Amino acid sequence: xxxxxxxxxxxxxxxxxxxxxxxxxxxxxxxxxxxxxxxxxxxxxxxxxxxxxxxxxxxxxxxxxxxxxxxxxxxxxxxxxxxxxxxxxxxxxxxxxxxxxxxxxxxxxxxxxxxxxxxxxxxxxxxxxxxxxxxxxxxxxxxxxxxxxxxxxxxxxxxxxxxxxxxxxxxxxxxxxxxxxxxxxxxxxxxxxxxxxxxxxxxxxxxxxxxxxxxxxxxxxxxxxxxxxxxxxxxxxxxxxxxxxxxxxxxxxxxxxxxxxxxxxxxxxxxxxxxxxxxxxxxxxxxxxxxxxxxxxxxxxxxxxxxxxxxxxxxxxxxxxxxxxxxxxxxxxxxxxxxxxxxxxxxxxxxxxxxxxxxxxxxxxxxxxxxxxxxxxxxxxxxxxxxxxxxxxxxxxxxxxxxxxxxxxxxxxxxxxxxxxxxxxxxxxxxxxxxxxxxxxxxxxxxxxxxxxxxxxxxxxxxxxxxxxxxxxxxxxxxxxxxxxxxxxxxxxxxxxxxxxxxxxxxxxxxxxxxxxxxxxxxxxxxxxxxxxxxxxxxxxxxxxxxxxxxxxxxxxxxxxxxxxxxxxxxxxxxxxxxxxxxxxxxxxxxxxxxxxxxxxxxxxxxxxxxxxxxxxxxxxxxxxxxxxxxxx
Length: 633
Description:
disordered N terminus; four-stranded antiparallel sheet; 21 helices; alpha+beta
């Protein structure tokens, strides 16, 4: 039996000490053995492959186990697969499953079905059939060899197209054409479309969960629609399920790691619209709640304010980007100049922009790297964003007025003659309708069209950016023109390239730097700027050919560093974060950003008293110290 990691025990003990009897006069801390929460609407299905949203991951992640899971630091750990290996270029992954793990039914009784490698083969064939309507299938369609062709052959046949084969013939060909095989009862092999050292982040997706095909055949179209029409191999099974009232998940005594299932049940009750989660939390009826801005204001200066904390940020990164093929000749000329780009890079105060959304702690949301922190770790536990060079950006402060003005002065000297004429630029009219239309004279100041959305917060941000650039670079050097989209930003701005400067946000698909760095190359799908960066392209190509994680991360860090050093993109903020109150002790459950990794309640510690700001801050400090220790800092 696998042991609880020492650091996990240390953090749980620390939580107990921090909330417990620090003096003899303080009462002993009590803990819940049941997690209590709510849901709204009607829960009509828990078919793991047709979930309507990620909120349902909290059910599936706890009732069906995958090949791997994550620990409290987000590191991939064995689950149903006790170990795994890859070929040299990581295009073939072999998983060795635990033996003697059985599916249980809704009463928690062991069934006749053992979890085997074939369960994972059958699962992939199930989700690859368009008739089953698997959500998010496009995420993995091009990952496993032959999977896309199999899916599209079936889709074409279902659409009435003649592809020279019958549906039954295509289905029968799955084992020969798609890269997943049960080599024996407990050995599973995936053959991928190419080198994929980050495949474990895919393995956390619900699309790679196992199924028992014989049970599916018995359930038919009712699969997943009731507790009786599901089988369970996770830490819990569904013991009660009333679609409009209640879901109860009870501890699975046959679970391979049951010693780390700390709660005897997870209870979710339906609530009607208008019922306040804050009120339920204050009455002790639920374990955690989020707060709206109005609710946050209402508890200010009350005893409950001491329990409010800011939840973690997400993988989404917001950044400013330039139009290198702008129809505005002044900007099109200026943006090719490195000092000009660096001047803009240093002139924008990211903290002030972040304060639009988070006035209490705006620094929390600032991000100065292109890729997110806290989600990619090498073989030594080192965060990708802590690699040489990137760490300086991550922990630095890019806003520097003095430096911005120095770069601007150099840019003007390189771009203009002594009379302020921009070399090579002729006067003319710039048509960027329906956003704006203006005339340039080919002289300083350089006209910059900053195009923004028209929401209140977006307009406020645009005004701040204009003020920053004008004040910090000089109105004699730049003239910021604000343009606003009135209907569709996609149609009015992106499709027509009606911008010089714009900002956008991008998510992060899987646990490897290539997830986004591959997409911002010269030919990348995120290169709306139309820049040409052969040096960066070469660095990315080199990194993609390296399959050992540490060396791969170092190579991708070098590539990202090139983009930052050359100010091709200006990252400034992260997405996510909300104000919450909780009784769930932080850092006791699995962490991770991919798939269902962070939705498990394994190891959860829930105290009767809400977690205070001070407790949360100290636990965060302890956690970050533990992470640093793992990274060898």
